[in-house]
Amino acid sequence: MLTQIEGIHHITSMARDARATDRFSTDVLGLRRVKKTVNFDAPDVYHLYYANGTGQPGTVMTYFPFPNIVSGRRGAGEVGTTVYAVPENSLDYWEQRLSEKGASNIFREGRFGEKRLLFDGADGDGFAIVETSDDKRAPWIGAGVDDAVAIRGFHSASLVLRDRGGTEALLSLMGYTSLGEEDGVLRMVRKGGNGADLIDLETRPDAPVARQGAGSVHHIAFAVADDEAQIAVRDELVAQGFQITPVIDRDYFHSIYFRAPGGVLFEIATNEPGFASDEDMEHLGEALKLPKQHAHLRERLEASLPKIGD
């Protein structure tokens, strides 16, 4: 069993409108934009990052906003719900705030004894907020959200699968253990992790295969401390027969990617070097930062990309 995985690092989704995505993440959820850059493979499209004040792994939601993308179709083989943690006695506040801000499909449910508030994101993507206690992660205090109710980071992610067996075995290899099962949902935990410790496996044999588009999670990334830990994880996954990419430098972390047995795209990302590697902590997410290979496009990109955060 691997011991290097620390929990969720970040989750990346597809979106349609950069401005709407930015408003939802900052004005509705009260998160901090910690990086404004572009897609490595499609530099005409933003890559936007939202998190707590420091961009701590386990708090980072990122987006590729493609203006002409079709809507995604919910189904099996994807992250169905991205779940945030908030302090106890916060759901009334969030239910009122989300309603006032125009969020849709807001409703409550219980899972594993927790109070959950579900709602849709700007493109119909699935989110939930869960009350937790003793979460030590420092929130970003913005958009009028008080510390007593602010989002702490990820609580969990729910993976929708037709058959959970292969993904359950993979997560077990990655250091996760079972916490129990309820209504067809298996909860797994990375004990002693980074706070974003939980993964729920929802088995839905009759679900259609998910179609990627606006509102779809593109991939889920798991955190490791550094390059050495990442190589150790990669070597073991290769030994187990997984097809893994080479290490790719993403400027703020190093990444490897592979497809989990249930169809979800997994990434292993390093905590280093972090989002302050090219920007002062006080000004994270303000200026457009470009990967070196796209630096020569700055004038054109600054003219063509939609203005956000102004």
From TrEMBL:
User: Can you provide one Gene Ontology molecular function annotated for this UniProt record?
Assistant: dioxygenase activity
Source superkingdom: Bacteria
Domain VOC as annotated: residue spans: 7-132, 153-271
The reply to whether Oxidoreductase figures as a keyword in the UniProt entry is: yes
Q: Which UniProt keywords apply?
A: Dioxygenase, Oxidoreductase
InterPro entries, per database record? Extradiol_RC_dioxygenase, Glyas_Bleomycin-R_OHBP_Dase, Glyas_Fos-R_dOase_dom, VOC_core
Pfam assignment, any one: Glyoxalase
UniProt entry tagged with the keyword Oxidoreductase: yes
Please report the name of this protein according to its UniProt entry: Ring-cleaving dioxygenase
Its source organism is: Nitratireductor kimnyeongensis
Could you read off the lineage of the organism from its UniProt record? Answer: Bacteria, Pseudomonadati, Pseudomonadota, Alphaproteobacteria, Hyphomicrobiales
